[in-house]
Fold each of these.
Amino acid sequence: MGQEQSQGDGPRIESAASFPGDPDGFQRLWTPHRAAYISGDEKPENGNSDQCPFCRAPHGADDDGLIIARGKTCFALLNLYPYNSGHVLVCTYRHVSLYPDLSDAERMEMGEMTSKVMQVLDSAMHPHGFNLGMNQGEVAGAGIAAHIHQHIVPRWGGDANFFPIVAQVKAVPAILGETRAQLATTWQEMFGA
């Protein structure tokens, strides 16, 4: 096998120099935890809400579902496969896929909760900016197209590097559970229940 670097049970980085085939000089960062996302194991089939992770999350403990805050029609949770540390999703409790399908109350609360998430992220993590967006439909890039969700991605100067472009790897320096606890605490301090 190639020369390995590892920290306990964490990611394993291997040099490709001793692998069969033409050496390419790259190292491989193995991320087997992303296999469920790539294979679609967590995606609901044909919009089935029983299989939807966004429908299941609010029925468990906030820690288990990575939930930061709950509202009347929407809730905020960390993205299990974040683009950046602190990547939050605002989801409706109701299993609908498209923005026009939202009720007025859902549309209003989604907007209000998005604003509050940005304030919480700003207070807790001090980003330099944000990306906001919704991917409507699989062809538009929605990982779970059957359940509407708004992305709030904090950004910092210099957070973009060659990893995603060259190696299709994203370095996320914060542990999801710790980030959830930090943001949930900040939400409580700023907005109460």
Amino acid sequence: MGDNIYILIFYSVIAIFIMVTFFLVLYIRNQNMLWQQRRLFQETEILQQKQLLSAVIESQEIERKRIGEDLHDEIGGTLSAIKLMLGALKQQDGVNQDSVLPAKQLIDKMIVDVRNIAHDLSPPGLTMFGLYTTIEGFVSLINNTGEIEVVITHDPQIEERLLSDKAELALFRIITQLIANTLKHANATRIEICFKPTDQKMEINYSDNGKGFDPVVLNAKQGIGMQNIKSRLQMIDANYTLTTSLNNGFKMDIICPIDRVN
């Protein structure tokens, strides 16, 4: 009788152990399913956000291009016509030449300003010549001011277009925004931009020798410019690291996957 009780207890313990194990496995399985569903939902949400962001930025670029073309063709054409009229007026007898010349100089400046704004809104050389040539042209305008030195290097020398039009446009906007931030906030005398292409990725190193930022303050108070930079990086699946501190300049390293030209 005693042996039967021990056997009964033994099998009861085994049965309870099997039941606990079964429910534990079932619980773990359900948790894994919930985790996979949550991860899938997050991935879907991130993809939708990226698609929405891409659509918003693309619509902005379309509008930029339209406004740039209107500025260049209509406003630029009108200013050129006014310049010709002033030139013709200058040839007439009895006209005060000293009063015409300042107006003509002002028109010349307005034509240059409108052309620069139009090119910034819709860089005409980007599609034809690519990112590097367009950036070099943009940088040459800044170097001509004599206020700051911008140096571009290639390691190795870039001889072909490696990125899609979408990636090149995004990186052009990012680099020009970084330059604008340096000019506005850094009190720097030198900017260095280095392109380092490989078979799989394009690395871009941007740095200035300005006053830098407190990283805590920079993360807490990001301006629209920096937010736009991060949005464009996200849109093209690019990663970045940002290094800065007070009185030690600013540096951003960007790694963009190579997706080749469209």
Amino acid sequence: MATHASLYKLIDPDLLRTLMKRTGSGASVSVRELATLAHIPRSTIGALLTGAQQSVPEASAHAIVEAIGVDLLILFTPIGRSVTLAAVPDAATA
């Protein structure tokens, strides 16, 4: 049975990069560390930073902001449509 997940678009890759330099705790976090903390592939974080990928499933967006220590709507905006999870890459398939 297919389930649906909302997508969240990264507002600005430069803002993500800046917040990675100084997280909510005041520490910096590398791409590798953020990926590990958020339980998502490093390639996803890298693609968000370069603009090659502009959106992630809701769960990934929440995991990223929780790892950085900011509110969801600081970094992401809901796209407003749902896609089947099978069509969205996630940590289980990457």
Amino acid sequence: MIRVKIIIFFILLNLFLVKNFLSASEENIYDKIDLFGEVLNKINKEYVEEIDQSEAMDAAINGVLQSLDPYSAYMSPESFENMQTETSGEFGGLGIEVSMEAGVVKVISPLDDSPAYEAGVKAGDYIVKINDIQVQGKTLNEAVEIMRGPVGSDIEITVRRKGVKKALVFNITRKIIKVRSVKSKIIDNNIGYIRLTAFNENSSNQIKKKINEFNKNENIEKFILDLRNNPGGLLSQAIKITDFFLSSGEIVSTKSRQENENRKWFAQAGDILNGETLVVLINNGSASASEIVAGALKDHKRAILVGENSYGKGSVQSIIPLRNKGAIRLTISKYYLPSGESISEVGVSPDIVIAEDNDNFRIDTDSDNQLTYAIKLLNG
């Protein structure tokens, strides 16, 4: 019992420091700490079931972080280890990028060719039930842990989709997720099409290689960069890829609490397409790094944006390891476009709005009306 009290004391002290750092409230923080301790004591003594003190503390820490924004969160040692495994580019799961919104898990985007993608899960779907477990009240990490499982095992997720009255149920088989960030093809003998699914370490090199191949073909004089359902990735890759298409000007800036940490990135001379016409496709699943590329090219009038408004994830998260081998994901700055506008919660609007017209929309198929429109636009 003494050990538990000591642990509670240090957690309360840490919560006090976090709260004091993040808020300018004039309320007596010590009264809040006392109140927090009282609530924990009541829960421990009177809650209908015995609780795990460690799990309760994890939930309290995560509650502080998730009250800040949908992207800040606490990762237990197990969750942190799983995240490090996933960033290797091959992992088991459903293949969806998710965030938390209003207590429910929201799909940012399904990864191309993943089990979720093939089942029909779409960007913007709200996951309300996983198997027979209600998601409401769960933390994002808890929901993600429930969705994980052995490769080859089945899972049922229930989603709510805007514009659809009835809940949709998807039965999905987990598998190894292999992230292929760049795909390309030639359309109508004169359009170079590049699909970027994520901003990984080698994305810029792959895109540069594909464009150089296109440039050797004298018939190709128009280009499409497809960023739909791209949840983002490395900022450095977003800057490099944007720089391919600009000869000068600001690409993106970040603003943080500490002024000396504010930064701006600028394009270097040279346009890899030599000024040829470029169309960029975006949708509700285009987030973060995708929005930086699309927004910068739009602001500099270097590309025509076609599709739907992007997701609006315009913030930078830092993974900060903790002494217990867990970590916190904390928002430390926000992205701003060359125009000075923030991406956060607003997104990037297309020049030409073309909504997805098919619930079974799949990229690179005949039902892809957005790509069809872009081709017609380029071919006059």
